[in-house]
Specification:
The protein is mainly beta and 218 residues long. The chain is built from 1 helix and 9 strands; from the N terminus they run αβββββββββ.
């Protein structure tokens, strides 16, 4: 509930920060002859933020943990079809969490007023692939049990992603919009570990708050 309230307040602030003006003074965010249906492209840059737990091995029997704020840049591109106030597309991107992720997702969005500066809602849902390359470590400290491994191979597989998003769409011309977004990202991750012929799987969930900016071309 606190996360939803924060996103709502942030979106309201963005809308107030870019008021609509008419006439010859100031910016004009109102365009009548806009393309309402057909192809569109959205290119977005976001920063995902959240706490991660850092575990340090002090001795064979003792570990210490601390929280650290993590910033994860994200670049995505969506291509799809406009239909009045609705838009549906398929997107892909590149993200830098602790390991690189390559999300592929379905993008569904609704804009209340396409001619003016207007709030919008979007939902991205899909799968973020890991790099799927095996990496060997002679010695490695982990943030989860067993906290320390030797002579082990790691392979990151990614997982399911869900990204509800609120924002403000501001028309720059009849064919281009700029979008300011606030989103909540839920990301599943799976890592396969092979240690001395013994294989095990570690699964975890990441929850991140993100702020972004995008350009929409129609």
């Amino acid at each position: 509930m606190k996360m939803i309230l924060f996103i709502f307040i942030s979106t309201s602030f963005l809308l107030e920060a870019f008021p609509q003006t008419n006439g010859n003074e100031g910016f004009n965010f109102h365009f009548e002859n806009r393309k309402k249906t057909g192809y569109y492209n959205t290119t977005q840059v976001s920063m995902l933020m959240g706490n991660r737990q850092i575990t340090q091995q002090q001795s064979f029997y003792q570990t210490s943990t601390r929280n650290e704020l993590q910033f994860s840049p994200s670049v995505t591109m969506t291509n799809g079809i406009l239909s009045e106030n609705w838009a549906t597309g398929i997107g892909a991107g590149f993200e830098m969490f602790e390991h690189h992720l390559f999300p592929v997702f379905l993008d569904l969005r609704y804009t209340s007023n396409d001619n003016n500066a207007s709030p919008f809602f979007a939902l991205k849902m899909g799968y973020a692939f890991g790099n799927l390359t095996k990496k060997h470590y002679d010695n490695l400290s982990l943030d989860y049990e067993p906290f320390f491994v030797t002579n082990a191979d790691f392979m990151n597989h990614g997982g399911f992603m869900l990204n509800p998003e609120l924002g403000v769409k501001i028309p720059l011309s009849e064919k281009v919009d700029v979008l300011f977004t606030v989103a909540y990202r839920h990301q599943k991750l799976k890592t396969k570990v092979n240690q001395m012929s013994y294989e095990w799987v570690h699964k975890q969930s990441l929850n991140r708050l993100s702020f972004g900016m995008a350009f929409m071309f129609r």
